[in-house]
């Protein structure tokens, strides 16, 4: 099976490539990645020799057409992925997330290639802290940020191409991922690398916002389950019942790293900050038989702390510019 992985030099995509090569000897992988600030060939260290790597843009219709023509399956991870950046400059989000998906859909339509679209739970908006309901495949779309709106738009393009043109596509909407090779702009790696640098973790607002954490390998195993057994035209939510508020995550990181649990700062809150995400992944579990392997968030987080401690050469080149960018908009707030 020939699989075209877009965004395979990013966080989730590179972990997908590692997992695929370790578990699927029958699969040939081609990676298409623009190597933006978020893409790193170092994330493919150890497997680069086993993949065909193409540096290029998912919105480049001619390039995408050539690559899709030679694939059996496309797994589309490539995106602008960070909410804070989308508040600063939404334009690459609209371009990559919408036009990139459009170029891929037109190519899979022309060549009748199976397509799996990677998306996020953020398309559903947010939940109140005390809402007993979680997001399901039937929750109406209600995105809050330019990032989540661009992802919602890309999902709707996929649904339209399925219905209007019979494209063989599935969509998955996953909750927050953690694990190795995540950019230090994101919440968990930012705090781990701050602590390594002797800098206090930075919590937005009061830190009561809840995210539903899943290990990246559990996400990617679910993606393979959907490629293997999913029904085309369907959407599957991916989540592992991992709800934790941000304050508890920061305190756990500090504890795991041998610091006082209250040694963090509150900083300026994110504009339009979604309060809570929570996924009901019943369809994936009952219809396709997927179960997560990482049972303990504490253990998974401890392993992630170890990864950042052992792989400073991977993250160090991006740390200073990331913190300089944050320093322009975020101030410490006394509460
Ligand atoms: P990331 O920012 O770490 O990686 C994105 C990758 O896409 C990078 O390698 C980048 O170079 C590449 N890319 C960006 N623009 C491109 C373009 N125009 N053409 C080709 N390549 C381009 O993102 P991530 O966290 O790995 O997210 C991957 C996917 O998973 C995204 O679609 C995101 O919306 C989705 N998702 C992420 C999470 C999460 O918690 N990180 C949760 C659910 C869904
Ligand atoms: O320094 C920080 N302090 C902080 O309190 C940062 C960077 C974040 N936060 C908060 C904001 C969120 O409530 O932590 C939470 C997680 O923030 P992010 O890592 O930026 O993730 P989020 O905005 O929840 O989006 C993530 O999950 C869904 C991914 O970045 C998206 O790509 C995915 O779609």
Distance between the termini: 55 Å
Strand arrangement across the biggest beta sheet: 3-2-1-4-5-6-11
Estimated helix fraction:
40-55%
- Ions, cofactors, ligands: which are bound? nicotinamide-adenine-dinucleotide, thymidine-5'-diphospho-beta-D-xylose
* Helix/sheet category: alpha/beta
Mean pLDDT: 98
Can you count the beta strands? 14
Classify the fold: give the CATH topology. Answer: Rossmann fold
Brief description of this entry?
The chain is α/β, with parallel strands linked by helices.
List keywords for this structure.
single chain, 335 residues, alpha/beta, Rossmann fold, 7-stranded parallel sheet, 3-stranded mixed sheet, 11 helices, 14 strands, binds nicotinamide-adenine-dinucleotide, binds thymidine-5'-diphospho-beta-D-xylose
Topology:
Blueprint lengths: L1 E5 L4 H13 L4 E6 L18 E4 L5 H9 L3 E4 L6 H6 L2 H21 L2 E7 L25 H20 L3 E6 L2 E2 L8 H10 L5 E3 L5 E3 L1 E2 H14 L5 E4 L4 E3 H11 L8 E3 L14 H7 L8 H14 L1 H18 L2 E2 L2
Parallel strand pairs: 1-2, 1-4, 2-3, 4-5, 5-6, 6-11, 7-10, 8-13
Antiparallel strand pairs: 9-12, 13-14
Helix pairs in contact: 1-7, 2-4, 4-5, 6-8, 6-10
The chain binds nicotinamide-adenine-dinucleotide and thymidine-5'-diphospho-beta-D-xylose.
Summarize the structure in words:
The chain has eleven helices and 14 strands. The protein has about 325 residues and is an alpha/beta fold. The protein has one domain: Rossmann fold (3-Layer(aba) Sandwich). The strands form four sheets. A seven-stranded parallel beta sheet has the order 3-2-1-4-5-6-11, with helices on both faces. A three-stranded mixed beta sheet has the order 8-13-14, covered by helices on one side. Helix 1 links the parallel strand 1 and strand 2. Helix 1 crosses helix 7 and helix 2 runs parallel beside helix 4. The longest helix is centred in the N-terminal third of the chain and has 21 residues. The model has no long low-confidence stretch (mean pLDDT about 100).
């Amino acid at each position: 099976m020939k699989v075209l992985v877009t965004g395979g030099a990013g966080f989730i995509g590179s972990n997908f490539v590692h997992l695929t090569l370790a578990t699927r000897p029958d699969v040939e992988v081609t990676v298409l990645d623009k190597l933006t600030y978020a893409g790193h060939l170092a994330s493919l260290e150890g497997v680069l020799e086993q993949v065909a790597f193409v540096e290029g843009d998912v919105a480049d219709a001619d390039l995408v057409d050539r690559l899709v023509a030679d694939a059996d399956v496309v797994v589309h991870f490539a995106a602008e992925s960070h909410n804070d950046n989308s508040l600063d400059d939404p334009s690459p989000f609209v371009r990559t997330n919408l036009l990139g998906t459009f170029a891929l859909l037109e190519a899979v339509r022309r060549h009748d290639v199976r397509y799996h679209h990677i998306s996020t739970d953020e398309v559903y908006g947010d939940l109140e802290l005390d809402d007993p309901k979680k997001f399901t495949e039937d929750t109406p779309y209600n995105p809050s940020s330019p990032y989540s709106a661009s992802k919602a738009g890309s999902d709707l393009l996929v649904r339209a191409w399925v219905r209007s043109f019979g494209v063989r596509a599935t969509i998955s909407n996953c909750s927050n991922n953690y694990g190795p090779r995540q950019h230090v702009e994101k919440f968990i790696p930012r705090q781990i690398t701050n602590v390594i640098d002797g800098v206090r973790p930075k919590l937005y607002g009061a830190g009561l916002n809840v995210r539903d954490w899943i290990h990246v390998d559990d996400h990617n195993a679910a993606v393979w389950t959907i490629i293997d057994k999913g029904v085309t035209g369907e959407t599957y939510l991916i989540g592992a019942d991992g709800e934790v508020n941000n304050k508890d995550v920061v305190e756990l990181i500090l504890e795991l790293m041998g610091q006082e649990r209250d040694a963090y700062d509150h900083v300026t809150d994110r504009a339009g900050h979604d309060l809570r995400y929570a996924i009901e992944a019943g369809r994936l579990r009952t219809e396709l038989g997927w179960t997560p392997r990482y049972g303990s968030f504490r253990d998974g987080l401890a392993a992630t702390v170890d990864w950042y401690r052992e792989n400073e050469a991977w993250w160090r080149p991006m740390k200073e510019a990331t913190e300089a960018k944050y320093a322009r908009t975020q101030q410490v707030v006394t509460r």
